[in-house]
Amino acid sequence: MKKALITGINGQDGSYLSEYLIKQGYQVHGILRRHSVAENQDVRIKDMDVKTYYGELTDEISLFKILRKVKPDVIYNLAAMSHVGISNELPIFTVKTNSLAVMQLLELAKEICPEAKIYQASSSEMFGNSIDKDGFQRLSTTMNPVSPYGCSKVMAYNLIRYYRNAYNKFYCNGILFNHESPRRGSNFVTNKVIKSIVMIKKNIIKKLELGNLDSMRDWGHSKDYVRAMHLIVNHKKADDFVIATGETRSVKDMVNYVFAKLSIPVKKHLSINKKYFRPEELKYLKGDCSKAKKILKWKPKNNIKSLIKIMIDAELKRLKNI
User: Fold this and answer.
1) DSSP string covering 5-31
2) How far, in Å, are 78, 138, 287 from residue 175 at the CA level?
3) How many CB atoms lie within 10 A of CB 271?
4) Can you tell me whether residue 289 is helix, strand or coil?
5) Quick one: pLDDT at residue 43?
6) What is the structure's pLDDT at 46?
7) Which residue among 16, 122, 125, 196 is the active-site one?
């Protein structure tokens, strides 16, 4: 059996990727950060046939031990300080985790498992407010990030490209645009919106507080995007790909759609709080995934409307079972 090592295995993408790889016949290993509340750290993967190890991307010794023990055929680096807003409050930690730790991983992998393929989770936040004339962002679009998170991801993206070219490695980037699911953390805007509005419907809370409603995003489903990750590392040559739906909606449009789906008046239950605004706003994201469609034969199965329905149904079920 081929062995896959997933950093950040207990996150949204890590859990869906684990399920997918198990179905593909992989032996799946993963790195977990130790949480003080142990019950929460593996809730997304606790019923899966995966082998996990406590480790930390910034801890060279733990990475060394895990790589030496597993000797993976493929490494999916999904671990990161992944919240853009919080990266403004923890910029140094963000860069250490998302950039310097990636270099450490590449150096260790080069020595311990030199034949292993590596997938790096890159981000649409790398583009910042750069947009091509046709309204899309693609591999050739200038990267001009507007957050410590985006900056840290640009460095990691370029490290993958450097090691690939300098050492002839099968290292690749997937530039994933926003992707959500019922497993998304509640502090990310899509899940915050859906969970809050469902709780308003159930008379548990009265208000949804948000920041900038004018930001536009290209939203897809995490399940679709982990399929793309697997296709990228199994392509005949190492390369970089944009993974997106090619459709963009404003946060306001998304919020209004969820309120309408649950037959709740917006004005009565929505308020704006400036604490949720970023120091520099990322205004617009829309990914050109034509390369992935043409070369990898990948396309998303979900759009924003089907995604929202899935997430609403999951939250209604969760509250019913409490």
Assistant:
1) EEETTTSHHHHHHHHHHHHTT-EEEEE
2) 12, 9, 9
3) 11
4) coil
5) 84
6) 86
7) 125
Question: Helix, strand, coil proportions of the chain in percent (round to 5)?
Answer: 45, 15, 40
Write down the catalytic residue from 15, 18, 87, 123.
123
Residues in the chain predicted with pLDDT less than 50, given as ranges, are none
The confidence score (pLDDT) of residue 186 equals 87
pLDDT of residue 40: 67
* Residues 229 and 119 sit within 8 Å (Cβ to Cβ): yes
Amino acid occupying residue 302? N
Q: What phi-psi label fits residue 99: left (phi over 0), alpha (psi between -120 and 50 degrees) or beta?
A: alpha
The DSSP code for 35 is: P
Q: Which residues of 117-145 are buried (b: 16+ CB within 10 A; e: fewer)?
A: bbbbbbbbbbbbeebeeeebbbeebebeb
pLDDT at site 38 = 65
**Per-residue model confidence (pLDDT) at position 322:** 64
DSSP 177-244: --EE-TTS-TTSHHHHHHHHHHHHHTTS-S-EEES-S--EE--EEHHHHHHHHHHHHTSSS---EEE-
Tokens representing 252 are 């306001």
Residue 123 catalytic? Answer: yes
What pLDDT, on the 0 to 100 scale, is given for residue 33? 85
Concerning whether 125 is annotated as a catalytic residue, the answer is: yes
The pLDDT assigned to 34 comes to 80
Contacts of 269 (CB under 8 A, 6+ apart): 197, 200, 206, 207, 208, 259
Q: Which residue, among 219, 180, 223, has the nearest Cα to 20 in the 3D structure? A: 223
Task: Return the H-helix or E-strand segment holding 110.
Answer: helix 101-112
**Residue whose C-alpha is closest to residue 194's, from 42, 80, 304, 44:** 304
Q: Considering 149, 163, 171, 284, which one is annotated as catalytic?
A: 149
- pTM for the predicted model, two decimal places: 0.95
- Mean pLDDT, the chain, integer: 95
Strand order across the 171-176 sheet = 50-54, 27-32, 3-7, 74-77, 117-123, 171-176, 241-243
